[in-house]
Backbone:
């Protein structure tokens, strides 16, 4: 897998106008102030063989780690992997969590998180696999909304 295409997609997210929910090609989900893109998706793991799905999850975590290392090299290590457990508990208590952080807490267990130097934008990487009716994805998140 060529990491240059993933880094180019992330670079695009760093400068993209996030003011409107424009969707557009490559969008996994978007809304005012954020955009989530699937950098890579599995094929044929929806509600199928659990062992095949988990193998894809492991492969995608390895891919996320490789991309994260390149971003660490570029921007410096920003934050420890951000577990979604706290957000899940807050949601269960009825607290309102803004997207994209609400959506990513439903889809992923954790995110790698950066705020590129000189930017107010947040960039995150995660592996979305919790929705078994969907394929496994490596997601890149760009948001002008502070993580909560």
Residues:
């Amino acid at each position: 897998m060529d990491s240059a295409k993933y880094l180019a997609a992330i670079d695009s997210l760093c400068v993209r106008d996030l003011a409107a929910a424009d969707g557009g090609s490559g969008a996994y989900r978007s809304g005012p102030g954020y955009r989530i893109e699937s950098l890579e998706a599995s094929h044929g793991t929806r509600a199928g063989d659990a062992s095949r799905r988990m193998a894809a999850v492991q492969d995608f975590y390895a891919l996320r780690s490789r991309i994260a290392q390149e971003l660490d090299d570029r921007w410096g290590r920003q934050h420890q992997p951000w577990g979604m457990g706290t957000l899940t508990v807050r949601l269960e208590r009825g607290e309102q969590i803004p997207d994209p952080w609400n959506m990513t807490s439903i889809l992923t267990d954790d995110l790698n998180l950066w705020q590129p130097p000189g930017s107010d934008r947040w960039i995150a990487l995660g592996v979305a696999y919790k929705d078994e009716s969907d394929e496994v994805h490596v997601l890149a998140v760009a948001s002008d909304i502070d993580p909560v």
DSSP finds four helices and six strands in the chain. The mean pLDDT is 90.
